[in-house]
């Protein structure tokens, strides 16, 4: 009985964490470049049950030998293994703002590959983002809305000295007669990147290799790839599953209460 108690409890915790992930997706449905998280649910390792017993061996001096009769396997519940972002392309929205940039996916040789803008966080470390909602700071540098420098291909901040500049589809910033390549990074396995908040990813990425194609669109923003209708449906499913496990847990609790208070009572 206690095993079923814990199994139902693990189902409730799993659905609660899945609900939190879905709620976070809904909250970021209007965040440019946001990639929806998908909670992967996995069962705990199965256990093989045996019936323990003994068998008398008919010898001159009878002996009892322990035996094990296999009953079958049993599962001990589920848990959220990890949150995997969906790196699918989000829809584009035209803003006509020169500092807004959108990455448009092209051909990737790896199924799990993805491209990103490279920025520099407050500690001077490179990070990656799909949020191209940039602006220009007081020193004339291209920065994110959090004030992080947008980097070029050489890893240096990009100075535009204002909003009068052009970005070509190949990702070249043209300003004051200079051609500055944007620091576009490619990750062959984007699932290994770690979300850090503010639309930033941390992990291993490299300059765009041969065979990878993309387009940079100035004056556009890539929208979140959250499907709000589907996410709301999944939230209802998670809620119903939570309720179901809650009812199972209540039934186990009532049965356990009867076992303690009623079974074996001396009248």
From TrEMBL:
Major subcellular site: other
Keyword RNA-binding in annotation: no
A Pfam family reported for this protein in Swiss-Prot or TrEMBL: Flg_bbr_C
Flagellar basal-body/hook protein C-terminal domain sequence ranges: 217-261
Family recorded in the similarity comment: Belongs to the flagella basal body rod proteins family.
Sequence ranges assigned to domain Flagellar hook protein FlgE/F/G-like D1 in this UniProt record: 113-175
Record-annotated membrane-spanning stretches: none
Gene: flhO
Domain Flagellar basal body rod protein N-terminal residue range list: 5-35
This protein's name: Flagellar hook-basal body complex protein FlhO
Location(s) in or outside the cell: Bacterial flagellum basal body
Highest classification ranks of the organism: Bacteria, Bacillati, Bacillota, Bacilli, Bacillales
Any one GO cellular component localisation term in the record: bacterial-type flagellum basal body
Keywords: Bacterial flagellum, Cell projection, Cilium, Flagellum
InterPro entries: Flag_bb_rod_N (IPR001444), Flagellar_basal_body_rod_CS (IPR019776), Flagellar_FlgE/F/G (IPR020013), Flg_bb/hook_C_dom (IPR010930), FlgE/F/G-like (IPR037925), LlgE_F_G-like_D1 (IPR053967)
Keyword Translocase included in the entry's annotation: no
Gene Ontology annotations of biological process type: bacterial-type flagellum-dependent swarming motility
The species this protein was found in: Ornithinibacillus bavariensis
């Amino acid at each position: 009985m206690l095993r079923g108690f814990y199994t139902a409890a693990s189902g409730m915790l799993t659905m609660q964490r899945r609900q939190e992930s879905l709620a976070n997706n809904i909250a970021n449905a209007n965040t440019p470049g946001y990639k929806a998280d998908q909670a992967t649910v996995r069962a705990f390792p199965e256990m093989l049950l045996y019936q323990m017993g003994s068998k008398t061996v008919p010898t001159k001096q009878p002996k009892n030998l322990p035996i094990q009769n296999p009953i079958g396997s049993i599962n001990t519940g589920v848990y959220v293994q990890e949150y995997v972002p969906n790196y699918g392309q989000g829809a584009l929205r035209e803003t006509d703002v020169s500092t807004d940039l959108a990455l448009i996916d092209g051909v990737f040789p790896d199924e799990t590959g993805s491209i990103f803008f490279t920025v520099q966080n407050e500690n001077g470390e490179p990070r990656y983002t799909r949020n191209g909602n940039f602006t220009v700071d007081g020193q004339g540098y291209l920065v994110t809305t959090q004030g992080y420098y947008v980097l070029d291909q050489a890893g240096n901040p990009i100075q535009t000295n204002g909003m009068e500049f052009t970005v070509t589809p190949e990702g070249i910033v043209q300003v004051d007669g200079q051609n500055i390549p944007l620091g576009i990074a490619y990750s062959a396995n984007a699932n290994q990147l770690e979300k850090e908040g503010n639309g930033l990813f941390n992990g291993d990425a490299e300059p765009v290799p041969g065979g990878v194609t993309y387009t940079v669109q100035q004056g556009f923003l890539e929208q979140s790839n959250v499907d709000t209708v589907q996410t709301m449906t999944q939230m209802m499913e998670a809620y119903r599953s939570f309720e179901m496990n809650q009812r199972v847990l209540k039934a186990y609790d009532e049965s356990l209460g009867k076992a303690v208070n009623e079974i074996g009572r001396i009248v």
